[in-house]
Amino acid sequence: MRVPLKWLNEFVDLPASLDELIAVMDDLGLVVEGVERVGEGLGDVIVARVDEIHSIEGADRIRRVVVDAGEGPLEIVCGAMNFTVGDFVPLAPVGAVLPGGFEIARRTMRGVVSNGMLCSGRELGLSEDHGGLLILSPSSRPGEALLDNLGVEPDVVLDISIEGNRPDAWSLLGVARDLATRLRHPLRFPAVATPGESGETRESAHVEIEAPDLCGRFTLSLIRGVRVGPSPEQLARRLTLAGMRPISNVVDASNLVMLELGQPTHAYDADLVARRTLRARVARPGETLTTLDGVTRPLAQPGRGLGDSGDDLVIVDGDDVIHGLAGIMGGEIGEIRESTTEILLEAAFFDPMTIARASKRHGLRSEASHRFERGVDPELALFAAARFVHLLRESVPNLEWVNHPLDVRGEIPERSRVTLTDHDVERALGVALERSEVVRLLEGLNFTVRDEGDLDVVAPSARLDIRLGAAGRADVIEEVARLYSYTRLPRRTPSWPAPGGWSSTQRLRRRAREAVVTLGGHEVWTPTMIAESDAALTHPHARRVVVANPLSAEESVLRPSLLPGLLRVAARNAERGLGGALFVEMGVVFTHPDDAQVRRRDRGGAGGVLQVDLPVETEHLTVLGAREGDDAVIAVATVRTLLARLGLSGVAVESSEDAPAGWHPTRHARLIDSESGRELGRVGEVDPDLVRLIHPESRRLGLFTLDVPALHQLERDRRRDDRAIVPSRFPAAAMDFALVTPNEVGADELGRVLAQASPLVESVTLFDVYRGESLGADRRSLAFSVRFVSTERTLSDADLDTARRSLVEAAAARGATLRTVP
Amino acid sequence: MSDAPLAHLDDQVEELLRAIADLASLEELTNAEPTLVGKRSVLSSLQKSLGSLSPEERRDAGARLQEARRRVVEALEAQRRDLEARARVAELDADRLDLGDVVLDAVRVPLGAGHPGIVAITQYALEEVFVGMGFRVEDGPEVESDWYNFEALNMPPAHPARGMWDTFYLELGEPETVVLRTHTSPTQIHLMEKAVAEESLPLHAVMPGRCYRRDTPDARHLAAFHQIEGIVVDRGITFADLAGTIDTFTRAYFGPDIDSRLRPGYFPFTEPSAEFEITCTLCRGEGCRTCSQTGWIELGGCGMIDPAVFAAVGIDAEEWSGFAFGFGIDRCAQMRYQIADMRALIENDLRFVRQFS
Fold first, then answer.
1. Closest-CA residue of chain A to B216
2. Of A249, A476, A639, B84, which residue is least crowded by CB atoms under 10 Å?
3. CA of A601: which chain B residue's CA is closest?
């Protein structure tokens, strides 16, 4: 909200220093986000009278103008065309510095010397108008200072941000009230009119509320003797400074009242309102309204918003013609015209939630809707009307405000009442504040406070944000703390007996990240929301988790896999000539509820009464080997090393034909916990077709992915037995076994069989694999080096022979036979 | 009949289809294509011969010819797909490798320093400060129901404060019931619910995690970002504890000469609420462009847990009180490493990634 300080100063005395004011406002939560100095740097600008205008040969966009600025003729080159001889215009003479630090110098254009610059409103920072020079009043004097001519004093406009629980602060009066209380300065209310002696409003106008739950109050003033014209200069300028465009004295007065007091009002041409009757009712399906912005809008259409039934509150006249969307925007009919002489002024209170929903549903936001949806003071309506009349009288002194304005009430939220004890304040803030100080602060904000041992506090009508009960007490305490100043409250660092720490999942995650980085991993962060086509690369048949309102189609579904993102990272770096790396991402992938093995369900919907199916989230650690020489073999070695580093033994690499989309179908294996049979992830290469599709170079890309929750489960399983084995002090014997093994028996599996075949086996290590025609295509020779040892004695030849036979027998049970070299 | 030009069309088509079926490789197919369906094909010459027919005959003959061409083209494409599939099978077969047979000792794994992500190292550094202060580190899901993301946090449907968060909704269930979480605060709700169910209060936890806001990325915002949230629910916790916790954290993480201050703010789930600011880390409070000459920069939000939130999770606000705070992890990284444009974080350019360890 823009706050011109001279205007604010009418409500409360401000600190002399701007820095001090800003600091106080920030500390009150009225955060100053911008400071604009207007009219500054205009001290050098003077009034000039245009005496001659000449064209310049060869130039059609600039002209030579001779002006008199009180010291005789002066030649200026000027590009504006909107003035004639005899007009008075602003002149920035040579040496003047305009707002923004632009210094005027003597220049020569097309051979003509220009002795200064004639200025537009925008160049002077006085308005947005840049269509031509600012034309001054015909009664101006050449040489007069521009600021004197306009009656403008330099001013400062603060742009402040108002928090969502401060409906009262959307007005100068509300801002001033905070400052007055903090600074202990008196608050000044603006002057208002009183209804005239003549007439009786109800004899000529009527108001009805058909929807008392949506329209809490509807006041209607009949104002006669109106002459529509421009607002007085000072009022128009205030509006401009506050960021609104002056339109006419009637509309301007309505806007000024809103800015000052926070109460939006709406002025109707009384002659355009059938039977001079206005009614607030709910729109019916099928009705439409063409709003002031020229858009025709269907009404009473249920919205997309949660629980939005589509209630539109409309204002209709005596013929049931819709005049406007209550509290948001008027319609095209009933607008104030130049010929308007009598107006009906609506000042009302509408249900904030109804306005918020309708404003969102229609995508229509106005200064009025902004205030109504936050909650306008329901008791403000007639005061606002009185202020309106007072302001309009500045241009129409003989205005007649007909007696007894209409005032119909529907349902108005009750003012909250809470009990506040000294202990409550201390319990919340950690310090006991003087009760008298608490009372002073609350009364300053217009709370009604009675000290009856405990404080009986009633919120002002403007504070619809103050709730009941414990919540209301918290609201009131916040106001006390805010006005007292957060920075004056004490600080204490709490401590408690429980130690801090990480969960076991988090420790695993940290260790896994550390380990993969040690192995050369470069961690990247790719988007959670990806294109449908990228999701299809790895999950062509899965149901998508679709974003209802994506920023772009490129980011419209939740990723089912980290692979597409990693591939794009590898491709982008390769395209930039940066080579490859071992790219790593740890992140969540999503499964549609209908595809999930175990559903994830939680409460949701309005009131949390529904059971909502949610996507299943699984954290993956995916590694893409994109270095020179990377392939499935390196991926296998890397993932095995990683698992070993994490202490996760007994994971088998089981070659498998069921490679998921995106994986190389014949270079793919599952990572299986050999004890439980659970899958932990997969290892292999990227499908060569997919590499060709995305990567600029045709090359092998190694790939493995681990399911972090499954790793965590495995870690928990393994932890159950973490006895250390002290190696035997007796000598070990090593023996090699070359076993011709059917393809379907994995090396890990056979190794495990060998290890379990005799209690004397200390370790089994695969050291060679041989394939050859002599063995047949369906088997290969796996060569293991086996160490035997006993904890009790040095092994005898007989021990070794028995053990050896046990191993050969066990291997034979899996179809593996000792290889005989021909 | 006068349709002489097409007298043998059926036979000619059959012959073409046979020729297509005989194509044995993609190379053969590419070579044969012009004579099968191209300008040099029978079909093209037949097309040219239609010129001699009357307009009416031409229309009928044209339709027959078009149908014939469609069949041939379809067969050719089917054959192409088939050959491509066969070529792929052959390629993959030749490439076959039993990954279970990889002999670890025989593999030379390239050695090279890796680099953790800037977000991860920043998050870990923050976690370590909080763990040292006695907080547990917890986490929660990225997709939440509206109940957890909004309503339990005192934002019922159409609450204007929901507009403070530009929310991504998912097409699941009723409209606007499933969201990508806009903040880590829903994890507070899960933790409090769990603590109530397990009767394990008090609660002292921080919750780092990824959040989403429907914001076009710019130098200071990304549509996905990381936040760390803290919560304390205990007996006798006051605003003073909150201010002290923020201050202790600030000095521990940013350095002893970095101060913190609170000023009033608004969050539906805390009351009183505050924004917390720290001494500008660039100018050390002197005033610079980054801090708009104020010497302070806003880091996050905090406040005393609102009684309505306690009510939603079933915690007795007479017995327990608490505070919560939250701020951006990426923002801390941006400040610590002086990164002008946040978008560098999602570019994943190796030259950027290699700076962190």
1. A551
2. B84
3. B145
Q: Which of B100, B111, B116 sits opposite A523 (nearest CB)?
A: B116
Paired strand residues for B326: B229, B301
Q: Indicate the DSSP class of residue B84.
A: H
A115-129: pLDDT as tens digits: 999 998 888 877 767
- By Cβ distance, the residue of A549, A613, A627 closest to B173 is A613
Average pLDDT (A600-624) is: 94
Pick from B84, B92, B101 the residue to mutate for testing the A interface (most A CBs within 10 Å): B101
Residue found by looking up tokens 């327990």 in the block: B320
Using the beta-carbon criterion (under 8 Å), do B160 and A491 form an inter-chain contact?
no
Q: Are A378 and A217 in contact (CB under 8 A)?
A: yes
Measured between beta carbons, the chain A residues lying within 8 angstroms of B151 are 606-608
Mean pLDDT in chain A?
93
The CATH architecture of the domain made up of B117-356 is: 2-Layer Sandwich (3.30)
| Mean pLDDT, residues A55-69 | 89
Instruction: Tell me the ipTM for this assembly.
Output: 0.89
CB contact under 8 A, A606 and B157: yes
- Nearest CB neighbour to A617, from listed B119, B141, B243: B141
* CB neighbourhood size of B21 (10 A): 12
pLDDT band at A140 (very low <50, low <70, confident <90, very high): confident
Considering only CB atoms, B103 lies closest to which of A519, A655, A766, namely A766
Q: Indicate yes or no: CB of B170 within 8 angstroms of CB of A664.
A: no
Torsion of CA B187, B144, A510, A571, to 10 degrees: -150
B349·A501 Cβ contact <8 A: no
Chain A neighbors of B273, CB-CB under 8 A: 478
Whether the pLDDT of residue A772 is over 50: the answer is: yes
Predicted confidence (pLDDT) per residue in B297-351, tens digit: 999 999 999 999 999 999 999 999 999 999 999 999 988 898 888 899 999 999 9
Residue B21 CB contacts under 8 Å (≥ 6 apart), including other chains: B75, B79
Mean pLDDT of B242-248: 97
CB contact under 8 A, A494 and B241: yes
Chain A residue at shortest CA distance from B115:
A522
pLDDT-based confidence at residue A309 (cuts at 50, 70, 90): confident
Mean per-residue pLDDT of chain B: 91
Q: Report DSSP state, residue A546.
A: B
Contact between residue B164 and residue B199 where contact means Cβ atoms under 8 Å apart:
no
Nearest CA in chain A to B207: A502
Q: Which amino acid is at A159?
A: D
pTM > 0.90: no
List, in sequence order, every beta strand (DSSP E) within A211-264: 215-224
d(CA A118, CA A146): 12
- Secondary structure element (H or E) that encloses residue B244, with its range: helix B239-254
Give A364 or B6, the one with higher predicted confidence.
A364
Whether residue B319 lies within 8 A of chain A, CB to CB, comes out as: no
Q: Which two tokens stand for residue A772?
A: 């050859």
pLDDT reading at B165 higher than 80: no
Residues of chain A positioned with their CB less than 8 A from the CB of B264: 27-29, 163, 478, 481-482, 486
| Per-residue 3-state assignment (H helix, E strand, C coil) for A401-437 | ECCCCEEEECCCCCCCEEEECHHHHHHHHCCCCCHHH
Domain ranges of chain B: 4-94, 117-356
Of B148, B345, B350, nearest to A581 by CB-CB distance is B350
Q: Rounded distance, CA B36 to CA B76, Å? A: 8
Q: Which of B144, B178, B239 sits opposite A430 (nearest CB)?
A: B239
What are the residue ranges of helices labelled H in A486-551? 504-518, 532-538
Residues 6+ apart with CB under 8 A from A257: A263, A265, A384, A387, A388, A391
Q: Is the pLDDT of residue A221 over 50?
A: yes
Judge whether residue B1 has pLDDT over 50. Answer: no
